């Protein structure tokens, strides 16, 4: 580690090469997901004044510090030690740690001297390219991300959350959308598994998921842009947990009372007639339909009441707001699709009617006029 790093609070510098899913010699697969936890432990333990960047430990010691929970590991101590040994050898083989050992004499209680390479060394300068087939897109993995003790503890020992935090933090500085395909590749999982862990991380306030906008494609079908993700700071996480527990300050309670009072004040104004089928005007639960009316209305009073309620929800419960926005945008995309489809059908109908009328106007009868006889003398 360099002098600059030693002056900052301790953190583990994770090389982004670990996420280079097209490079087997660098990528950490899902079977070795706990390598992230092992790497963090070794990095933090190596930051001491005696031998900076180096730690002495054994498989037995690490096994007690890192209980690994997998389908294969049945929580037996022997299974855990076997997995720890495998992860150490894997990290060493990929170049993320430098371990001095003799393979023939390596036992669980063998004293190991492990060095953590400089965060700004060779690995930081190396670039690994990975290819996303569906998006026909190349991702360049390089650099590193620092994981603090608070970030690590917020994951509650779950390596999936840790990996998600690291990747989100890496993308935080740019306006970057991450598709489920990319998440699946980075996590080494299926898209469904990736979505499961992302939703859980979002619910735990580890990350904020900013839902991609909905739009209508060339066929008029609703489509959604990939989501954006950002990590939640420790301060913001604590503040959200306090609010979710109902521990509001007097100022926040007064603010909510004022919002309700203003809602009642504007209730007598002229509103969007669609508001009668939603809970937007009263204190009932906000729904995607409420968001849709608020987002599309041309009535100032309806817009004002929506601003107050949704802005308050966005501050108090961002994840709930994002969920409503996502579903509301689906309704918006469906409506745009319907309008476009009806407009197209009207043009087709008008064209068909116009063509039929033209044919009728141009039509000339071809039958011959028959001679009529006078039968008046018979009737007389």
Tell me what you see in this structure.
With 380 residues, this protein is α+β, with helices and mostly antiparallel strands. It is 49% helix and 13% strand. The radius of gyration is 33 Å and the shape is elongated. It has a three-stranded antiparallel beta sheet with strand order 2-4-3. It has a three-stranded antiparallel beta sheet with strand order 8-12-9. A two-stranded antiparallel sheet has the order 1-7. The protein is built from 15 helices and twelve strands.
What does this entry show, briefly?
It is built from 15 helices and 12 strands. By secondary structure, the chain is of the alpha+beta class. The longest helix has 45 residues, at 318-362.
Query: What is the chains' assembly state?
Result: single chain
Q: Taking Cα atoms only, what radius of gyration do you get, to the nearest Å?
A: 33 Å
Largest beta sheet: strand ordering: 2-4-3
Number of strands: 12
Form type: elongated
Q: What order do the helices and strands follow?
A: HEHEHHEEHEEEHHEHHEEEEHHHHHH
By secondary-structure content and strand pairing, the structural class works out as: alpha+beta
SS strand fraction: 5-15%
Low-confidence stretches: 1-6
Proportion of residues in helical segments: 40-55%
Kindly report how far apart the N and C termini lie: 129 Å
Summarize the main sheet.
Answer: 3 strands, antiparallel
